[in-house]
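FAQ: What does the model actually see?

It sees only this:
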Amino acid sequence: MSVVAYAPASTANVSVGFDVLGAALAPLDGSLLGDRVLVENASGDFYLTNAGPYAHKLPDDYTQNIVYDCWLSYEKALDKKGLARKPLTMTLEKNLPVGSGLGSSATSIVAAFVALNAFYDNAMSEHELMLLMGELEGRISGSVHYDNVAPCHLGGMQLVLDEAGVVSQTLPSFEEWYWVVCYPGIAVSTSAAREILPAQYRRQDCLEYGRRLAGFVHASHTGQEQVAAAMLKDVIAEPYRAQLIPGFKEVREHAAAMGALATGISGSGPTVFTVMKDLHQAEKLKAWLADHFIQNQDGFCHICKLDAEGARVTGTKL
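And it is asked to produce this:
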């Protein structure tokens, strides 16, 4: 038996929701912007193989790979349920660059758990899987954060609650929005992006953060597109992280001149996102970004809609 699972890239924070808002991304051209994981029967010991365009960025020792930790965690969860283990091997197809701000670690984690769960005939519930995903993501970032793994797993725009037994809930999204996401080809570590943030915030910044997040959530539920777009301003992270991303200010200014509804930093960067309503303008912005923001051959730009499906089993072969 073999099974392959795909998990989409995601943009966390979405400017207005630091650590509590995230959205899954699906390129319009149909390409898979995310990682895939293959789980298959084995006759011997466990082994993990890497493949894909960014496999060379992963540790040579597979026991240092987060997917290996996913396997250990899943096997431990099986033991708690009194379920038998199966001999297996895994392959991670790494399609997202590490440190890109597109939920690279989350895509590996989510794809691994979804593939393992399918291999074991859905031994874990969706909620149990989400808790495992959050735990593994926390090992990388230093604390549990669901703003990447929740949209990556469940799809759409996710608001992280993590209360009353509910990890996250789906927000209504605006179908006519195009999300132009551009990775310049450089890396910004999540730890470095967090270290640059202040230890304390002014009261007025905290109040503005709460006002904008509440306004965005309400506008999303009531279909107030202009209000929702106006709320997409980051007062928590962007004022500090923008300096880590060469050319970010120019991207914002150029996108605004082209009619963008909003521009922000995806996750901890360096990927940026721009929300637009006109596809022709989105295509023009994509071309401009390729010429003025992408810095090397590793960079890329996609025009996306939100991926409503999230992680899914796609077949039996990579």
